[in-house]
Amino acid sequence: MSGNPSTMPCRITRPGVALASSRAVGPDGVLRVAGTANDSITDGPGIRFTIFTQGCPHDCPGCHNPQTHAVDAGTIETVDALWERVVANPLLSGITLSGGEPMLQPIPLARLARRARARGLSVWCYTGYRFERLLAGEPSAEVLDLLGDVDVLVDGPFVQRLKSLSLTWCGSSNQRLIDVPASLGSSTVTLWNA
Predict the structure, then answer these.
(1) End-to-end CA gap in the chain
(2) 86-97 pLDDT, tens per residue?
């Protein structure tokens, strides 16, 4: 890894954004979504149902999904409706939570992730936050509930000067693929190996 995460050029530009709880968009069974991919092969191993959450405070230069940044855009989806689309595809090996910033809506996403894992699907999550900051309860304490149902976390902001097309499942070399269950069970970050 190159550089200190606290000095990376990805910055919080909307500190007043209050999406840290799903209550910002409504009841715990709904979330604000920018879009979905029903059969992605680029957001983790196998065929995956990817949810692009709406709203992101990081404003990373060169972001792959800048249309997901505005917290008041996208559509409102229920967890149940998204889940129906997941179970309708018997070829899926997992779901991926992307964005935007999934950690801004941890309660409904935890519900979805829990259902996926109970069905034997893997759960991947992309976040601009570092794993250590999430463990400290940033942006909200509810992220810990979501982390408990994530198998692999791709953490860290996208850093354009560290971009590499040779990386698998991440955009810049500062990002890590973290084995979340192993990391939560130890005192160190355990990287995921395919």
Answers:
(1) 19
(2) 999 999 999 999
Among 133, 127, 107, CA closest to 52: 127
Which two three-digit tokens encode residue 142?
């509810």
CB-CB contact of 153 with 131 (8 Å) = yes
Q: How far is CA 44 from the centre of its chain?
A: 12
Average pLDDT for residues 169-178, to the nearest whole number? 96
Sign (positive or negative) of CA dihedral 112, 85, 93, 45: negative
- In angstroms, the CA 162 to CA 184 distance is 27
How does DSSP classify residue 44? S
Give the whole-angstrom CA distance, residue 120 versus residue 133.
Answer: 28
pLDDT tens track for 92-130: 999 999 999 999 999 999 999 999 999 999 999 999 999
Contact call for residues 174 and 5 (beta carbons, < 8 A):
yes
129-162 pLDDT, tens digit each: 999 999 999 999 999 999 999 999 999 999 999 9
- Domain residue limits, the chain: 20-184
CATH no. of 20-184:
3.20.20.70
- Site of tokens 């715990």: 28
